[in-house]
């Protein structure tokens, strides 16, 4: 039976030949992770039992077995972190599986130019992630105390007859809410601009729901930066500075990294 | 004293942080490496759907972790007896 192939990442063959890949069990513990050199690029992969790993099996597991998902996601992460330490790596998305080795070779070979271009783009660089979480109560108080539009509205309301005041106060609450959102967005954009100054490339990603993060605070910003290795310390110092400044406003920052360049090794043009 | 970098590097990352990056390509799957190099031969998933299902899953996983006391269990059993109208099936 022809085996399926789980592809973790793509590395320059020259780098692979210089540093040995440590022995490591594959996605299903049965097979060992190994390299398949294809000219300038080598694929880091493991074989999978074709009968066991069908599309419906994986879909079923992903949707109904969180323990499986967690175990396999950590495995994928662990392998890529190892590859990222050893080589310049184009990391593949979780569960990138080919029906057989020939299909993988055909696919990779046809993209060779773009892949080598992508490798040279991320060479010597690191990918870092910054998330901003906001405690809206603190920020709301700040906004409501210091915003001039709100202050003017409040003065206007106090001169109204009591009956009218009730409805106008309700409207004012909505205004505070809108101003809060505006303020939060502005602060996050400011943080992002300050951090982007250190980056070769930067991008903004989707925020995660509270249900997924399991935190009390809302995720207000999720961004990713590609940094020259020698800029990383300065970047992290800036994160610290912003953290202290934004802390009083109820914004918490969380930096993680260095990650394999999942975001920036994407093929094709990327803008800063 | 460890540097800022070391402190961050050694901090444990959660499942969500990992999924956030390892599904990154999947989120913008159009014109993506996986799709474009694999064509129809690839076993792939709609990762946008996956992300939303992970959000639901994590939540239900957390909700289900609470322990069921024997009182709650008995309550539920009584409710089942009422609902099914088959006392023999649900009592000892």
UniProtKB/TrEMBL annotation, chain B:
Gene Ontology cellular component annotations, sorted alphabetically: gas vesicle; vesicle membrane
InterPro entries recorded: Gas-vesicle_GvpA-like, GvpA, GvpA-like_CS
Protein's cellular compartments: Gas vesicle
GO molecular function, one term: structural molecule activity
A Pfam family reported for this protein in Swiss-Prot or TrEMBL: Gas_vesicle
Origin: domain of life: Bacteria
UniProt entry keywords in alphabetical sequence: Gas vesicle
Principal location class: other
Coiled-coil ranges from the UniProt annotation: none
Family the UniProt entry places it in: Belongs to the gas vesicle GvpA family.
Name of the featured protein: Gas vesicle protein GvpS
Species assigned in the record: Virgibacillus halodenitrificans (Bacillus halodenitrificans)
Organism placement in taxonomy: Bacteria, Bacillati, Bacillota, Bacilli, Bacillales
């Amino acid at each position: 039976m022809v085996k399926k192939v789980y592809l973790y990442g793509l590395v320059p063959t020259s780098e692979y030949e210089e540093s040995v890949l440590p022995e490591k069990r594959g996605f299903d513990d049965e097979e060992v992770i190994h390299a398949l050199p294809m000219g300038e690029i080598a694929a880091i992969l493991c074989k999978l039992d074709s009968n066991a790993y069908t599309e419906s099996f994986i879909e079923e597991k992903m949707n109904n077995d969180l323990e499986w998902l967690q175990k396999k996601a950590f495995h994928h992460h662990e392998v890529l972190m190892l590859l990222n330490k050893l080589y310049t790596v184009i990391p593949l998305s979780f569960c990138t599986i080919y029906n057989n080795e020939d299909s993988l070779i055909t696919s990779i070979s046809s993209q060779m130019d773009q892949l080598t271009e992508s490798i040279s783009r991320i060479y010597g660089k690191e990918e870092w992630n910054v998330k901003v979480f906001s405690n809206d109560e603190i920020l709301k108080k700040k906004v409501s105390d210091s915003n001039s539009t709100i202050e003017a509205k409040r003065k206007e309301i106090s001169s109204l007859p009591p009956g009218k005041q009730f409805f106008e106060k309700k409207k004012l609450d909505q205004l505070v809410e809108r101003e809060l959102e505006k303020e939060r967005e502005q602060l996050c954009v400011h943080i992002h601009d300050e951090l982007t100054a250190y980056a070769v490339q930067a991008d903004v990603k989707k925020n995660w729901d509270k249900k997924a993060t399991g935190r009390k605070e809302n995720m207000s910003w999720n961004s990713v930066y590609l940094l020259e290795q020698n800029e990383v310390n300065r970047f992290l110092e800036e994160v610290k500075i912003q953290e202290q400044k934004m802390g009083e406003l109820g914004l918490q920052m969380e930096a993680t990294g260095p990650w394999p360049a999942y975001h920036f090794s994407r093929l094709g043009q990327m803008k800063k | 004293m460890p540097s800022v970098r070391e402190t961050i590097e050694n901090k444990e990352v959660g499942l969500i942080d990992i999924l956030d990056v390892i599904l990154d390509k999947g989120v913008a799957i159009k014109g993506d490496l996986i799709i474009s190099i694999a064509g129809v031969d690839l076993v792939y998933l709609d990762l946008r759907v996956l992300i939303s299902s992970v959000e639901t899953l994590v939540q239900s996983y957390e909700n289900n972790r609470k322990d069921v006391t024997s009182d709650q269990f008995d309550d539920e059993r009584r409710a089942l007896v009422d609902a099914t109208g088959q006392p023999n099936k649900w009592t000892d």
